[in-house]
Write a structure and sequence with these properties.
By secondary structure, this protein is mainly beta. About 5% of the residues lie in helices and about 60% in strands. It has two helices and 20 strands. It has a twelve-stranded antiparallel barrel. The chain has a four-stranded antiparallel beta sheet with strand order 17-16-19-20, with no helix packed on it. A hairpin with a 2-residue loop joins strand 19 and strand 20. The radius of gyration is 22 Å and the shape is elongated. This is Secretion system C-terminal sorting domain-containing protein.
């Protein structure tokens, strides 16, 4: 009987080897870089323990960079290609509740006088919220966003996501803005913006996102898809090291500290920027690195051990 119970348990673990992880924060880390993708995908799977295969998407040479600027209670996420602003999301955090105050996408600027509530992070699978919103919009056409407009937010799925540079467990956040518009103060119209965010269940990285903006009256139907640059993703050359070697502080102010379990020996550490340029290289068995001289931003620490090399992304304050 005991053997049967153990066997049944092992089968259950094999079938359900991972579970959903909370979404710790809405934004990606400042400095995160994303490649613009082309192609068609099916994002309809929803619920628990589902799978998405986006390996058919083709990466372009367009590399976008996220910048997160915070001036409490407000903040903004800017996505740029070089010096060119591509998209922007304005946010407000009041009593730990995050709301959208504005959004720029596909040349359409949405500005809300009645903010659109997302929720209080962390968000768990099964969370949902509907909120009213109101404001104005500008772009190829301009006008008012009527107070009958809504935003629907849901952590609607978790499972396995496959991309060219990623294959792992994720939790998905879906946001749909249902906009009732008055163009030029005279002509009624509708608009819909549907956005999906896929967060790495292990690192909390925002690894994939897509946005579709539809305004039929203006013949607008634009979709953008972006995947996190593989140079930012944490990877290992041998399985099992991830759990045995961790950063103890992230973001980092002056000293980068590592926590290694028994059986893991640090031999060397190198620090690179997101372009892959090695900035610092040390042959050391100490699990600390002085990074006080580095400018603020995102970096990758490559830690060489006797069991292989692991890359850990960190933010320098």
């Amino acid at each position: 009987m005991k053997l049967r119970i153990i066997t049944t348990l092992l089968v259950f673990i094999n079938l359900h080897g991972f579970s959903q992880a909370d979404i710790e924060s809405f934004q990606s880390a400042t400095g995160s870089q994303y490649y613009l993708l082309t192609g068609a995908i099916d994002q309809s799977p929803t619920g628990a323990n589902v799978s998405w295969d986006f390996t058919g998407l083709a990466a372009t040479t367009t590399l976008l960079t996220d910048t997160f600027v915070e001036t409490p209670p407000n903040s903004v996420i800017r996505t740029s290609e070089g010096s060119i602003l591509i998209s922007e999301i304005g946010l407000n955090t009041t009593d730990d509740v995050l709301s959208v105050t504005s959004a720029l996408s596909s040349g359409i600027q949405l500005s809300y006088t009645n903010f659109a509530v997302i929720g209080a992070f962390p968000l768990s699978y099964g969370y949902s919220n509907t909120d009213d919103l109101e404001g104005t919009f500008t772009g190829p056409v301009s006008g008012n966003i009527l107070n009958s407009s809504t935003i629907d937010v849901a952590v609607d799925a978790w499972g396995i996501l496959k991309l060219e540079a990623f294959d792992g467990a994720v939790t998905r956040l879906k946001i749909v803005q249902n906009l009732n518009l008055l163009v030029g103060g005279l002509v009624p119209a509708t608009g819909t913006q549907t956005t999906y965010f896929y967060y790495d269940a292990n690192s909390d990285d925002l690894v994939f996102r897509s946005t579709r903006l539809q305004v039929p009256l203006a013949n607008i139907d634009n979709t953008t898809m972006e995947s996190l640059s593989s140079s930012v993703l944490s990877t290992t050359t041998f399985k099992g090291i991830e759990a045995d070697l961790k950063l103890t502080n992230n973001p980092v102010k002056d000293i980068l500290r590592l926590s290694a379990n028994d059986g893991v020996e640090v031999n060397a550490i190198s620090i690179s920027d997101l372009s892959g340029r090695v900035i610092l290289k040390l042959e050391t068995k100490k699990a600390i690195v002085d990074v006080s001289h580095l400018p603020s931003g995102m970096y990758v620490a490559s830690i060489q051990t006797q069991r292989g090399i692991i890359n850990k992304r960190f933010i320098k304050q």
